[in-house]
Amino acid sequence: MTTIAQVSDLHFGSEDPATTETLIHELNVAELDLVILSGDLTLAARHDEFERAREFIDRLKAPTLAVPGNHDVTPWNIPERLLHPWRRWRHYIAEDLEPAWFGPDVAVVGLNTARRMRLKLDWSHGSLSRGQIRTLDERFVVAPDGAFRIIVAHHPFLEEEGADLATRPKAIVQRAKKALKVFVDERVDLVTAGHLHRTYAAAFETAPATSAVVAEAGEAAHRVTVIQAGTALSSRTRGEANAFNLIEIADGRMEVRAVTWSGVKWARNPDPLVVIERPSSATK
Ligand SMILES: [Fe+2]
Ligand SMILES: [Fe+2]
């Protein structure tokens, strides 16, 4: 079995130290193969916040795969933001802004959706460039045959079904639709994201654009499931408990369930957010 935790929006700078200790313990006893950190590790990209994020990572037994969030680019030092937006991330977290991790039955690929600036007024929103979308196939070249394919990004790709868009800002990443179509072509199973501080799952399903992929996969349509994680530590919970997602993969089956903080302990939700089953013959 491969077990992965998706931990998002830690926001060091607004964390509760006692809850931080329980989260580190919870992640370490789970004997994880990988911890995904889907951005917003800090509140305002301050050095002391990055230091606490680094200490958190160093205390985890499992390897981590981290992509930046909009809060991880300094909002105070504008010259640094514009000229060297990833300097602090690279110093404290990782040199590679879009890392990948490959296990025997899963391929995990990171995409950086945070931006130093945008043409629109709100710089907290995310984007994917045409180049990031166009070269996605190269990122999966070394994925094992039949492996589940997971994308990690900070900004969301799909709204929650039935969400009341009038009551909160729309924060879907720019070029999400275009990217989702390429995710279908690349047989991506799961997209893990954060930013909204809300846990939910949503699905995008369509036929692949290239007939070769259809013939190879032996099916007309492919479903990409997006899972959003709540904030694991921040007090900015927007009405939901602190939470992270647990991804378990075994025997061609992937299950994702939320693990929520009750104020006393972390509890696994008995009902999975999503179950994805892979026919044993399916390979890319
Ligand atoms: Fe956040
Ligand atoms: Fe964010």
Question: What would you say this structure looks like, in words?
Answer:
- The chain is an alpha/beta fold.
- It has a single domain (about 1-275), classed as Purple Acid Phosphatase, chain A, domain 2 (4-Layer Sandwich), CATH 3.60.21.
- About 20% of the residues lie in helices and about 25% in strands.
- It is built from 8 helices and 13 strands.
- It has helices at about 15-30, 45-60, 80-85, 85-90, 130-135, 135-140, 175-185, 210-215; strands spanning about 1-5, 35-40, 65, 100, 105-110, 150, 190-195, 200-205, 220-230, 245-250, 255-260, 265-270, 275.
- Strands 1, 2, 3, 10, 11, 12 and 13 form a 7-stranded mixed β-sheet that branches. A 6-stranded mixed β-sheet has the order 4-5-6-7-9-8, covered by helices on one side.
- The longest helix is centred in the N-terminal third of the chain and has 13 residues, at about 15-30.
- The model has no long low-confidence stretch (mean pLDDT about 90).
- The structure holds fe (ii) ion (FE2) (2 copies).
- One fe (ii) ion (FE2) binds near residues 9, 40 and 197.
- Belongs to the cyclic nucleotide phosphodiesterase class-III family.
- This is Metallophosphoesterase.
- InterPro entries: Calcineurin-like_PHP, CNP_phosphodiesterase-III, Metallo-depent_PP-like.
- GO terms for molecular function: hydrolase activity; metal ion binding.
